[in-house]
Each structure stands twice: as structure tokens, then as C-alpha cells.
UniProtKB/TrEMBL annotation:
Cell location: Cell membrane; Membrane
Keyword Cell cycle in annotation: no
Name assigned to this protein: ABC transporter permease
Repeat keyword on record: no
Cellular component terms per the entry's GO annotation: plasma membrane
Record family assignment: Belongs to the binding-protein-dependent transport system permease family.
Pfam families documented for this protein: BPD_transp_1
Main location: membrane
Amino acid sequence: MLLDHVYLSLAPLAASVVLAVVLGQACHRYRWLNRVLVGTANVLYTIPSLALFAIIPAVIGTQVLDPVNVVVALTLYTTALLVRPVAEALGAVPEHVRAAATAMGFRPWRRFLTVELPLAVPVLAAGVRVGSVSNISLVSVGALIGTGGLGVLFTDGFRQRYLAPIIVGVVLTLLLALVVDVVLVALRNALTPWTRAGRS
């Protein structure tokens, strides 16, 4: 149950980070695309999660109770959450830094991966932390369509009118969110050692 919840929360998070970086780079390079994608992301994020869980099977042809529906839905949500901050973070990279990398012979994609993206990590990490908490919470809603996770404790507790499983589910969900957040902060610090040097 806990492992199911971890998988259903973190698999979409990992996929959405990759998608958001690609889309964010595209938004940064093409201003017209920025307006289109950010507008679409804002609309997508307003769709109720339970409705999206129900719509996904009809779109991708899966069974209603397939956990893939939750993974796809949460990937869409988290990507929508991350696209704008990634594009803004890439846009905030100083132009002289890009010029220096180009002068050193860096091709565009190498410059992006080794210069621009690392400088955008702090903003990206902040969005990922929000996305992780959101996913861990929304996976519980997926229990209403039978996809498992800690949300099963909530549905069982309500169905049996028994408080203990609900309390256990709340505590485990909070602990999982806390542990994942601590791991993400540690990962951010490892990827951006210059920020620690600046603070000290």
C-alpha cells in the first residue's frame, strides 16, 4: 500500500520534470509558444482531479481501475505546475553567462545542459517540492476509483465508519510528504553547491 503510493506519486513527478524542462526550454526560445503552453497549463490545472482520473481512460484506452490513469493524470498536473517557473528560470539566466559559454565553444544543447539548466535548478526544485506534496495528496483521491495507495485507508475507514484507518492514512501521508521533501532539499543542495557557499 505504501509502496504503491510512493510509485504513484513519484513516477509522475519524475516524468513531469523531464517534460517541464523540455517544454520550458521551448517556451524560453519561442515567446509565442510560451503564451500558448502557459495558458494551456493554467487551464489544465483547474480541472478537478477526480474528473481527470475518469476522463483519462477514455482518452488513452485503459481500464477505469488501471493505475496508469493516475500516473498520466498526475504527470499532466505536475507538468502544468512546472512549465511556467522553468521557462522563467531559464529566462532569468544572465545573457553574459550565455555569451561566455558560447565564446568558450559550447553548442546550444551543451550550454543548456551544463550552464543554463544548473542555474535554473533552485527554481525548478521549488516547483518540484510543491509538485511532490500535491501528488502525494492527490494519489489518495485515486483510491475512489480503486487505484490503491494510502487512500484505501481513507475509503475503508469511511465505509466502515471506523476512525483508526483514517488517522493512520493521514499520518503516513504526512510522513511520506515530509520524507520526500527532505530528500528533494538534499538533492537540490547537492546539485547547487554554489548556493551554500553564497549563504556561508
